[in-house]
Amino acid sequence: MRFRLTPRETSFYDMFAASADNIVTGSKLLMELLGADMSARAEIAERMRAAEHAGDDATHAIFHQLNSSFITPFDREDIYNLASSLDDIMDFMEEAVDLVVLYNVEELPKGVEQQIEVLARAAELTAEAMPNLRTMDNLTEYWIEVNRLENQADQIHRKLLAHLFNGKYEAIEVLKLKQIVDVLEEAADAFEHVANTVETIAVKES
């Protein structure tokens, strides 16, 4: 890691860690949604909205700190991209839960649980990785594994689409379910964006 003669603002590390921990909360709510009956989904969606608002607050705090800091721990653009990508993850997860409730989906198609399991694992890895930004240690395995998970999510997504278009579902139901699985896929993509940004930061700091 480069030796620096100037002090650096360290609160960014704590804020990134808090944002990632909040994403773990969101992934757990997604898992909870899987096992919930329709009567319990609205309450889960309300808790997910609260988590998404907490994520927004964390992102705004990072941006405020970025705008008010003369010295930052790494490039300003990378700080912005990392915060934005973390925020995107929560947005997509909240959107997926909201759509399930709004569309009154009785049963999610087989394979959605695999999508959510991938997201939950990516959330855990991301939360574990954020504190390591302080030292840039032990990050390589993180971004390699998240990229592998994103590839896995792509495969699951393609299988889900094939299942939705196999003629079993009514056209309107296909549209509803496709939107949900597409948003979950976007969440997986956002996890990869976070990992790629972390890799970029680590390379610059090496």
Automatic annotation (TrEMBL):
Q: Which ranges of the sequence are coiled-coil?
A: none
A Pfam family found in this protein is PhoU_div
Q: Which InterPro entries match?
A: PhoU-like_sf, Put_Phosphate_transp_reg, UPF0111_domain
PANTHER family with a match to the protein in the record: UPF0111 PROTEIN YKAA (PTHR37298)
UniProt lists the family membership as follows: Belongs to the UPF0111 family.
Q: Report what the protein is called.
A: DUF47 domain-containing protein
| Taxonomic lineage of the native organism | Bacteria, Bacillati, Actinomycetota, Actinomycetes, Kitasatosporales
